[in-house]
Amino acid sequence: MTASLLRPAAAEFLRIACAVPDLTAPTPCAGYDVRGLLNHLLYWGPWLIAAGRRLPAPAPAGGEAAVVTEDWRADLEKQTETLLEVFGTPAAWTGMTSLGSAAMPSSVVGAMVLGEFVLHGWDLARASGQSCAYTPEAATAVYESAVAMGDQARSMGVYGPAVAVAADASPLERALGAAGRDPAWTA
User: Fold this and answer.
1) 35: three-class secondary structure by DSSP
2) What letter does residue 51 receive in the DSSP assignment?
3) Using one digit for the tens of pLDDT, what is the confidence trace for 88-110?
4) ∠ at Cα 139 (30, 159), nearest 5°?
5) Which of 108, 56, 57 minimizes the C-alpha distance to 87?
6) What pLDDT score was predicted for residue 3?
7) Predicted pLDDT at 151
């Protein structure tokens, strides 16, 4: 996986997220409405940034419950740009880092960032009736990452059970299924 997949995925993610009209709509991401999913993204983004910079995780402050403010779109745009700055260099994808107290390869954290853009972008698109257009290369990278970390992610409650998809499914549909999402989900 390369840093080059991030910028187009981030642009599509922001296009979708910033056009969401209803923060109370349900999403395909289990347990989250749109506001809850945005809270999740804005809460965990600084953790990903710290891991990319190989810095200690930020001090927890109130959890995911109340991060979305009136300026959430600007906050999300700024956080996404910072993630692109941090993970847009090949060096950010090499060596080891930590996410909180868990040591892991930096490439795994980079893959998480790409997964956040693609999977949660799709979640927000579905919740708001928008289309999404991630590149096949980005979707394939997310699929490969979801397969590689699937069992661990499911044991931690990050992914739901894998969803079977058709043999001729698109790369995005395969990624969604591997991450426990039903590509046919509707509100």
Assistant:
1) helix
2) H
3) 988 889 999 998 888 999 999 99
4) 25
5) 108
6) 79
7) 82
**How many other CB atoms are there within 10 angstroms of residue 178's CB atom?**
23
Report whether 161 contacts 154 (CB < 8 A).
yes
Task: Tell me how far apart the alpha carbons of residues 83 and 53 are, in angstroms, rounded to a whole number.
Answer: 10
Instruction: Give dist(CA 76, CA 163) in Å, integer.
Output: 29
Q: How many CB atoms lie within 10 A of CB 30?
A: 12
Domain 3-134 matching CATH 3.30.2130.10: the answer reads: no
Give residue 65's pLDDT: 63
Who's near 111: CB < 8 A, 6+ residues apart? 1, 141, 142, 145, 149
Stretch 178-183: mean pLDDT: 94
Q: Domain coordinates of the chain in residue numbers? A: 3-134
> How many of the other CB atoms lie within 10 Å of CB of 25?
17
Query: Which ranges of the chain does DSSP label H, i.e. alpha helix?
Result: 6-17, 34-53, 72-87, 106-115, 121-128, 136-155, 171-178
Res 61: pLDDT:
65
Residue type, 125: A
